[in-house]
Amino acid sequence: MWPSRDGTTHPGTAPRGITPLEKPGIFAYMRRMQTVSAAPMPIPGHIDPVPVPRAPAAREDGRTDLIGLSRDGIREALAAAGLEPKQAKLRAKQLWHWIYNRGATDFSAMTDIAKAQHPWLAERFVIGRPDVVEAQVSNDGTRKWLLRSPDGQDYEMVFIPDADRGTLCVSSQVGCTLNCRFCHTGTMRLVRNLTAGEIVGQVMLARDSLGEWPSQPEGRLLTNIVMMGMGEPLYNFDEVKAGLQIVMDGDGLALSKRRITLSTSGVVPIMARAGEEIGVNLAVSLHAVTKEVRDEIVPLNKKYGIEELLQACADYPGANNARRITFEYVMLKDKNDSDADAHELVRLLRKYKLPAKVNLIPFNPWPGAPYECSTPERIRSFSNIVFEGGISAPVRTPRGRDIDAACGQLKTASEKKSRAQLDREAEEKFAALG
Ligand code: SF4
């Protein structure tokens, strides 16, 4: 006899998955618990309920990717694999140099590490790069890469060359939870957070393709990084922080924090931490100056309103006139582009005494987008009003529109799969292996 979930009993052997421990009384208890846990859990304080997406799968070959580990992390991984502590420390230093100064991906190239140790390292570790599914070059020189993680998730990065700089737009998540209405990525569901390794991996791959090894402080093509690709970086804070710390490490990629900008849609409770613990420049996707319009364009506004967001900007550690906060403002026809909106923007930025510059972004359309771009005259008028208010408001030239690489256009075919579907796929794969 075996008990079913409705408390009745059945003759014969219990189906797979039902154990003798599962008694009718236990089901009744579980039902009670389900009823109790259906009530909303009280959240103490002002804590953001960050959605926890699926974790990345481990590499199939069982090796550890060194990209994304801190220097201490590399040392610990070597020690855990069996190296003496002193040797692990020395090897970690050598590996760091080869990986982040020389761009090495093969242990056999590491001439100051004993040859006999190369196979030992290669059996246990890998210096990975994301797989490139597609690389496109726009007619304005912008490059876009569609990348794939070892567990089959697709994400994008974009390199925008300019006369005096080269900016890499880096993704922090596959998909996004925030559904900003002007943004193509926002139409994807969140698939998962990218790891620190996948964030640093984008920078490494860009350096590979620009031929920027060995690393040099002068004459680089990749000079700036913006965390403005797919995803909301503050909803993946720990991995973004770990990744950017590697990018900023003076003995490695050595990109100054002044050349890195983190863009948020306004995750207010985490903004101060970003300033204190990462210390990079801040950009805010503002896009509207009234509650009604911002609630529509950036739905996160319903949770953290404009005033609260601007106060968090005023409190952002390290912001001053030399390091101004960038306010991104996408120009949407008849939605947020009136003269009154421009005046209100000036009033708000002044009210909070913000060291601000405003980036006006002509809307980049994508298939099915619910908005149109403002006319050039409207954008000019808006820009003039903000300039006259004493705030710099350049109009950003759209880049990479022909390859859907422009701001707000990134989207991949990655879709969120249910746990059951992923488990089924894993079973099928396992069965195919025999
Ligand atoms: S603008 Fe940024 S935060 Fe908003 S949906 Fe797009 S990727 Fe997400």
Topology:
Layout lengths: L1 E2 L5 E2 L13 H14 L26 E2 L5 H10 L4 H16 L17 H7 E2 L4 E7 L5 E6 L5 E8 L4 E4 L3 E2 L17 E2 L2 H15 L13 E4 L9 H12 L11 E5 L3 H11 L2 E5 L5 H7 L8 H9 L10 E7 L7 H13 L4 E7 L13 H13 L30 H14 L2
Parallel strand pairs: 3-4, 8-11, 11-12, 12-13, 13-14, 14-15
Antiparallel strand pairs: 1-2, 5-6, 6-7, 7-8, 9-10
Helix pairs in contact: 2-3, 5-6, 6-7, 7-9, 10-11
Iron/sulfur cluster (SF4) binds next to loops.
Outline the structure in words.
This protein is of the alpha/beta class. The protein is built from 12 helices and 15 strands. It has helices at 24-37, 71-80, 85-100, 118-124, 196-210, 237-248, 268-278, 291-297, 306-314, 339-351, 376-388, 419-432; strands at residues 2-3, 9-10, 64-65, 125-126, 131-137, 143-148, 154-161, 166-169, 173-174, 192-193, 224-227, 260-264, 281-285, 325-331, 356-362. The strands form 4 sheets. It has a 9-stranded mixed sheet with strand order 5-6-7-8-11-12-13-14-15, covered by helices on one side. α5 packs parallel to α6 (237-248) and α7 (268-278) runs parallel beside α9 (306-314). The protein is elongated and about 70 Å long. It starts with a strand and ends with a helix. The structure holds iron/sulfur cluster (SF4). Iron/sulfur cluster is lined by residues 176, 178-180, 183, 185-186, 230-232, 265, 285.
